[in-house]
């Protein structure tokens, strides 16, 4: 499941990040949580609340007809995170789009 979750996150980033922009990958751990965050640039502000992009078939209206994809990617990532007993959080600020996956650290 981890492999598919990562593949979907990277695919989403490659489809929607601004061409030529920097993509940041952050990984951190605590005693009980593994956290992965991907941050990429956006060309335009979001017209929807970022967290709503977890819902199937939801896309940012400004890019809806200009990018590939069906609006399922982050919904699938969310389902995979939940199957791993984790959670997915999405935020957008200052033309930066962030997806954070938090998973329990199980030995």
Structure overview:
- This protein has 107 residues and is of the alpha+beta class.
- 24% of the residues lie in helices and 30% in strands.
- It has a 4-stranded antiparallel β-sheet.
- A hairpin with a 2-residue loop joins strand 3 (87-93) and strand 4 (96-104).
Task: Note the main attributes of this structure.
single chain, 107 residues, alpha+beta, four-stranded antiparallel sheet, 24% helix
Brief overview:
The chain has 107 residues and is α+β, with helices and mostly antiparallel strands. 24% of the residues lie in helices and 30% in strands.
If you compute it from the alpha carbons, what radius of gyration comes out, rounded to the nearest whole angstrom? Answer: 13 Å
Percent in helix: 10-25%
| Distance between the amino and carboxyl termini | 16 Å
Give the ordered list of helices and strands: HEEHEE
- Please state the overall shape, judged from the principal axes of the Cα atoms: globular
Name the strands of the widest sheet in spatial order.
Answer: 1-2-4-3
Q: What is the total tally of β strands? A: 4
Largest sheet: 4 strands, antiparallel
- Helix run count: 2
Q: Determine the mean pLDDT.
A: 83
Helix/strand layout:
Layout: H1 2-16, E1 23-29, E2 33-41, H2 73-83, E3 87-93, E4 96-104
Antiparallel strand pairs: 1-2, 2-4, 3-4
Helix pairs in contact: 1-2
